[in-house]
Fold this sequence. Notes:
By secondary structure, the chain is of the alpha+beta class.
Amino acid sequence: VCDIWYRSQNLNLRDRRMRNLEITDIVADEDRERIRKGLVEYNLSQLEDKSPKELGIYYKVEGEIKAGLIGETHGNWLEIDYLWVSEKLRNRGIGSSLLAAAEKEALRRNCKYCFLNTFGFQAPKFYTKYGYHEIFVLENLPLTGTRHYYVKNLV
């Protein structure tokens, strides 16, 4: 497969630049972290706000996390990476409480907007119910599904 791609790009496998490439199906944690760290360092050097702050909100029962939200605030934006509620606790308002708490904390941190995404089988209706506006849909993911991207004005 790799050789076919090189030929389709009119690249010579003996080209010195190509000899330095390594392609793998297994990404080591330290390699992932090196790439992430390099990108974050560059991005922060270009941005006027250099203080992203993690956000974690957890719903615990007897000390065990049963639901939670993970995200980050940075400048004007709250970005929600994960919102999860264990199956036994769904449809009890816990997800709504997590989302409301994240938005409240984002406002306290002077954020004006929120960004998040969800698969079509997860919670598109949930987010639109709370005022999120779909900005685009990634179709055929991974083969026949969809991923929906949303924003919301918090102020």
